[in-house]
Design brief:
Chain C: Pfam families: ABC_tran. The complex is a heterotetramer, with 2 copies of chain A (about 350 residues), 1 copy of chain C (about 500 residues) and 1 copy of chain D (about 325 residues). Chain A is mainly α and about 350 residues long. Chain A is built from 16 helices and 4 strands. In chain A, strand 2 and strand 3 form a beta hairpin. In chain C, the strands form 5 sheets. Chain C has a 6-stranded mixed beta sheet with strand order 6-9-10-3-11-12, with helices on both faces. A 6-stranded mixed beta sheet of chain C has the order 18-19-20-15-21-22, sandwiched between helices. Chain C has a 4-stranded antiparallel beta sheet with strand order 2-1-4-5, with helices on one face. The chains are: A mainly alpha (about 350), C alpha/beta (about 500), D alpha/beta (about 325). Bound molecules: adenosine-5'-triphosphate (ATP) (2 copies) and magnesium ion (2 copies). One magnesium ion binds next to helix 1 of chain C.
Amino acid sequence: MSEQVKSQGPAAPAPRTPAGGARGLARLSGTTVRNLGLVVALLLLCLVGFLTGGERFASLTNLTIILSLASVIGVMSIGMTFVITTGGIDLSVGSVLGLTTVWASTLSTQTMAGQYGWIVMVMCALLVGLAAGLVNGVIIAFGNVVAFIATLAMLVAARGLAELIANRRTQIVDVPSFEGAFQGDLLGVPKIVWIFALVVVAGWFLLNRTTFGRRTVAIGGNPEAARLAGIKVKRHMMYVYGLAGLTVGIGGVMMLARTGAGSSTNGMLIELDVIAAVVVGGTLLAGGRGTIIGTVIGVLIFATLQNVFIINNLDSSVQQIAKGAIIVAAVLLQQRISAPSRSS
Amino acid sequence: MSEQVKSQGPAAPAPRTPAGGARGLARLSGTTVRNLGLVVALLLLCLVGFLTGGERFASLTNLTIILSLASVIGVMSIGMTFVITTGGIDLSVGSVLGLTTVWASTLSTQTMAGQYGWIVMVMCALLVGLAAGLVNGVIIAFGNVVAFIATLAMLVAARGLAELIANRRTQIVDVPSFEGAFQGDLLGVPKIVWIFALVVVAGWFLLNRTTFGRRTVAIGGNPEAARLAGIKVKRHMMYVYGLAGLTVGIGGVMMLARTGAGSSTNGMLIELDVIAAVVVGGTLLAGGRGTIIGTVIGVLIFATLQNVFIINNLDSSVQQIAKGAIIVAAVLLQQRISAPSRSS
Amino acid sequence: MVIEDQAAPLLQMQGIVKHFPGAKALDGVDLDVLPGEVHCLLGQNGAGKSTLIKVLAGAHQPTAGTIRLHGEEIRIAHPVAALEHGIATMYQELDVVDGLTVAENIYLGHELASAGFTQRRAVAARTRALMQRLGHPEIGPHREVGTLSAAGKQIVSMARALSRDARVIVMDEPSAVLDSGEVDNLFRVVDELTAQGIAIIYISHRLEEIRRIGDRITVIKDGVTVSRNLDVATTPTADLIKLMTGKSVEHAFPDRPGVPGDAETRLEVSGLSLAGVFHDVSLRVRAGEIVGLAGLVGSGRSEILETIYGARRSSSGTVTLDGVTLRPGSVSGAVGAGIGLAPEERKSQGLVLDEPVYRNITLSSFARIARAGWLDETAEKAAAAEQAAALDLRPPDVNRAIRTLSGGNQQKAMLARWLVHGCKVLLLDEPTRGVDVGARSEIYALVRRLADAGTAVLVVSSEIPEVLGLADRVLVVSDGQVVREGPADSISEHDVLDMVMEGSVA
Amino acid sequence: EPPAQENQTEAQAGAVSDNDEPGEKVVIGFSAPAADHGWMGAITTAAEAEAEKYEDVELRVAEGTNDVNVQISQIEGFIADGVDAIVLLPFDGAALTDVAMEAMEAGIPVINVDREFSDPFAARATVLGDNYGMGVSAGQYICEQLGDKPDAVVAEIAGIDSLPLTQDRSKGFADALDECGLDVDNRVAAEFTVQSGESVTANLLQAAPEIDAIWNHDDDQGVGVLQAIENAGRDEFFLVGGAGSANVMREIQEGDSVVQATVVYPSTQAADGVKLARMVAQEKNLSDLASSGVPRTIQLFAPVVTADNVEQYLPNAFES
Ligand SMILES: Nc1ncnc2c1ncn2[C@@H]1O[C@H](COP(=O)(O)OP(=O)(O)OP(=O)(O)O)[C@@H](O)[C@H]1O
Ligand SMILES: Nc1ncnc2c1ncn2[C@@H]1O[C@H](COP(=O)(O)OP(=O)(O)OP(=O)(O)O)[C@@H](O)[C@H]1O
Ligand SMILES: [Mg+2]
Ligand SMILES: [Mg+2]
């Protein structure tokens, strides 16, 4: 998996920038220019959308639809960005999402929510997500189990637990206060899009402006150096997986709001989409570099792609072939655009 | 993803062994003892199987059933072992498996096979697998796209292509020569188990006794050193993915033999199982260490687990929870058993 | 001083230019090497030595310039081409594969094989012969290289160069991880090779080594050859340093002001043991004192430092700082109490290479820089820049990725980390490994300044002169035990060497 | 247990016979795809519930799987165990034909449920839903409603597109629409899950600004579909569901949503399979039939449920 770092190693040595004057540009050449490539990919996609879909694509409503669709995956991608930045991975986000929606919509939770308000359901989803994340974190950090395997185990187990709790039924949410709080629009924008925006902003500050974020990057860049600098690496790893679980919990609340139902099938196979969005966004799978903005653009690319496909009424098999090709093309495009900046 | 290496870093510094006499023991402490932990896990599982299932578990027929089940995944795991040893990953094996079964069972292939014999279908499956693998390899090695993303794109695209070719129908194999060649038993053992065994032996020699294998390990362990030693790293990477594709092609033939039908849904979600078997078997996700024997034991653990569950008639949700717990337990057990050997 | 070319050069590199995206590493370098000579390549960190030899090895393609072998122009398009021309290289960054055995590493890329199958027996036999020749028969062919020490890996790297039928062997700082005994061994092999007419290109920052085995010297500075074919025997050290650095550097250790007798004990280690590595180590370091740990590679000095620091959990014994006993096995506890460590392997243990300099500097000081977990980047950069300026970090820009700094400057950044943190005890493990002469003197002066300001310093170094020159007091470690302790000026290099018995590098 | 017996007789109004009398003990192996959507979950739940009702039935349920290779192995396990009968809802009928044949040859009757084997002799009896017929029913209903509007916009929200059953449904739907000169203008495929239903529908509604009718293949994904419609505030069309979940039937009953009808695809097929397996193993006859022995093929009826007849179907609908 440290593929990325490696294949960049021999092929394109780590960017080095000249000393004096070009400093400003050199700074820019980091995240910003890498994101530029992505933005170009997204714009190209939008152009295709506009050319083929016209008004149906380029409308405010459609923008809202794309954003709403991006929201649930988007929120989880923010947590995943932290995990991947440490050099880890979390395959369990999809099934834990299912588990949170199920747990937060059981009869008893809904009954309590009927009495004490929507906060009960929200707390339930957040706590379940957080707990699952912490369990992942403990097994990975203190049990020394590879993240891939530990979270794969959680994937399987959480799905089973969700099925057990839901008894394989779809649980319809019937708590007016919850629906009132999370469904519908606020200032013309769906509430879940607001939540997404809030999580993005919080995630950006957490990664870029706090010691937590700094530690996350340091651990991903060089865990041994981080440990010898006095960072409690294991405890931090646990927190990072906990954080990812928390964002899954938030995603669960949004999912409940959006679909109005809790089901163990929620979030099925979503993990690969989440990881793909983060990695296409420019966060290194090998750890040590994470970008929230990149992740958001990555999520938007995938959401827009689906939208363009459906607007064009594409056959689903053809959609898949095109999707595969476009993923590769987007990554290649991003590389080509970012590459010259290295030499600037 | 280089998690494994990293988390081992701080916890247990690189094993150093005293110079002179203990050399023999030091050798043993490598792969063998690591595998020992796995064997213990497998034996424990068998013990549980025997205690709960008695004769139904501990019979020759049941062994055959477990082995047949393990065969298709097993063959693909051998190819995956090479990929992961280079530090890469191949998420596309499942959907390429579907594609090979579809392509090898189209009407035209079957018609040709009716004329020229089963070799036509076999060659078709192998070539399709090989080609898909090479495409992965080229995109990864020469396009510098992270393996995770490149093969994810292939996963999506190959599934779409398979659907398109099969027109989403299941294609029934009706070529007597093919069925004769691959179905049924040979010396009391199903033919696909023989194929599995052959691939294992070939894989073991290839990894441990040939320059190809040594170079694969070298690239995974230190790609820059490999390049400086004169190894054509990119070309080799391409070959390794090609090899993985080839094993998928073999898996496709076995799948056709076992199910008698080609379908684009074949191999769905199998990729995670394959990767899990390889990693649980002890091949490092970060690259640089691969073990064929470990992979085989990993595959057997998963197949036996499945078998024990069925024999015990566990509720399928409970099965999943148990499966998650057992995966983690097996890895922890393996670590505890291998750990003392480090300091020996 | 300059020797005229008497014999026809074996190898000539002319006008080599190498541009990297964003950096000009070489800007016209000339080098001629005669058969059977040891040609030394000198230059500061970042002068372009490694880049030059990578061009020669086919690892980099030059932007311009010609390479001649026996007067004939050749093109070295890839590493294999260099090897085919008889140019073998031991790279500066250890280039072995941990997961393969000694034999497999040596024959990587030119495996003895028939039809793709490796001939294990033949390879093992040849490997044994090579190891015998290198004086290390204890390193068996089937040993996994990951289990060897850095010195052992260096020997494997050497064996690999020998396994090729080479006419020119390039050695890029081979002695950096070797102790004096090993260096002697290396030089014995070098002598053997040159006697056979093989040319050696030798790179090192240790001038005394150059004096011992070198024949001629080429000095490069900022990617340009500033002087060629200097005679080793006759060129004064001061001139060499001036050529390399462009200025005169006092190549001497700072004065020892002497620790006042009443200085309080800062760090006290008593009865510290780590099972299987070292045993019953007791030492104390007073405020303002520099204590050196001398010993052979593999004698366990790094482990002593790491155990004091909490990076390894001691099996018995205590560490006290200013009278307070530290919790064993807790790095964050030690850092919080005021201990800092500049680890042995800067790149793998000390730095987050892709992060900017300032973030590497502040990594241990969040407690004092951040408010409730919130970082003020401006204040953070200012704090880092202040220390960078105090240490004369070059370039002074703290926003650069630390990867782009030279080795000496990376080491200064490590020290800056602990200056920002304001630690009371500083543990230094091989503080000048791979650091050029100019930067070395600066680091020595800096360490002494710190001590003068009241910091207790514990230094490990494999260069015995360095320990003796820098420290106030020296402890000699052999086989995991302190065998002698005394003021640095009462011990001679010879004494130290006598005390540490011949050990194995494996 | 007596209480179970009572429930049983209540639910099965009509077909009362002495078939429910306990007979010799029967071990039935049951294997079905993963319960990754409501209908499939209901299948397994119903089969388990059915088995609970008989004290002479021991049901061995293999882990639901979408990997035919694993499912084959499960059947091999049942054969080795020597179960008395196997109820098999294959992930892919063709792929499990060979192993089913093996079971039959070993003397174990196989009851094939829902997805048909490629060889009729691989099963002793087959309980089939009617996927093609389901599409036809949905198409005919839409034709009835829109027959006079030749340029009406019809959209289809399919299930997992790679499954043959989805193709059958779509084909039936297209064929029926063709009869009245309509066609499918927009088609999207979801994954039988609430989540995917919601997301593709949100996009679909944007792609087609004016719709007259939608057929949604699966009522479980329909929960998401309806939510997306509500989120978008659209109601100019009517929606026909599929499979017939209790939720959707309640919506039809209430009559204040866009759902006008749903086409039943019985989720009790596997339960029927269990019943048949027991009868085959105990060599009983299907009551109310004159001929002896359990029939080879039973194709279940795929009726259209509307506000008019919803009371009749709601009690048997599955809670998704
Ligand atoms: N791959 C690369 N990309 C960009 N710049 C590089 C690369 N490799 C080296 N450089 C730059 O080229 C210059 C020369 O580096 P080089 O490693 O050759 O120095 P050196 O003389 O070997 O130093 P040291 O004594 O520290 O080993 C440095 O400024 C370095 O930053
Ligand atoms: N993880 C380990 N397990 C067992 N033995 C170890 C381990 N790490 C180190 N050793 C042993 O401890 C001893 C000291 O190691 P090390 O090479 O770090 O000493 P050193 O004196 O610091 O030498 P150097 O100059 O290389 O730093 C060696 O004998 C080494 O083999
Ligand atoms: Mg160098
Ligand atoms: Mg050391």
